[in-house]
Design brief:
Blueprint: H1 6-51, H2 60-70, E1 72-76, E2 79-86, E3 89-99, E4 104-112, E5 118-125, H3 139-143, E6 158-160, E7 175-177, H4 183-208
Parallel strand pairs: 6-7
Antiparallel strand pairs: 1-2, 2-3, 3-4, 4-5
Helix pairs in contact: 1-2
Length: 210
């Protein structure tokens, strides 16, 4: 078959397409597997952090080991709850996805055994702007939620702006500080947290209240 012929050109393009498709399929499969592994590790870290276990000095292997040892998973009605005992108190965590400013935000939210206080909050993934809304990942922001008392009715938690010194660590005022300069993200997270509690608190109370 002559290289200059139309048949050769067509055959060459077909073979090239098959080779490229195989390579892309392999790369996609490998990448997907790595992404899933990384997401599993990120989720485990977020769950441990939300229930009140310090993970900042842990590497990936320690996180996985601690998760296996400390977290019990309860699955029912298509739901998944992560149970832990921290400082002698039971903690119940769940993952909730809602709208952020620029995309979906997946958060892990944990309530303590009284169901009247947050144990903590952490984030699995989001697409908020780095340096602005992306500051929801910063420790000062997440630390505000630890042990925070919930109001008896919706909204259970309010966000306020403190320009002088962000970070409201009073556990009894049902208020945390928003992120200065990221009003849209702050409002979105405020709604996400309140909607999550509204949906999940009665479910947790019915299943686990002693």
């Amino acid at each position: 078959m002559k290289k200059e012929s139309a048949a050769y050109t067509i055959l060459f393009m077909v073979v090239l397409s098959l080779v490229l498709s195989s390579v892309l399929g392999f790369v996609s499969s490998f990448t997907k597997e790595r992404i899933e592994v990384n997401l599993t590790a990120i989720r485990a870290k977020a769950i441990l952090e939300a229930v009140g276990i310090n993970v900042h000095e842990m590497d990936l292997r320690e996180i996985e080991k601690t998760f296996r040892e400390k977290i019990q998973i309860d699955e029912f009605d298509g739901r998944k709850v992560y149970l832990a005992s921290v400082d002698g108190r039971r903690v119940y965590a769940f993952e909730y996805t809602g709208a952020g400013l620029w995309g979906l935000v997946s958060a892990v939210i944990a309530l303590d055994e009284s169901f009247e206080r947050l144990a903590g909050i952490s984030f699995v993934r989001h697409s908020e702007t780095p340096g602005l809304g992306g500051r929801i990942d910063e420790n000062w922001f997440k630390r505000q939620f630890r042990g925070e008392k919930l109001s008896s009715s919706y909204p259970y938690l309010m966000f306020a702006t403190n320009i002088a010194k962000p970070g409201n660590y009073d556990p009894n005022d049902s208020t945390v500080d928003a992120i200065t300069g990221a009003t849209g993200t702050s409002k979105a997270i405020e709604k996400l947290v309140n909607e999550a509690i509204k949906q999940w608190k009665p479910i947790l109370m019915e299943r686990y209240r002693r």
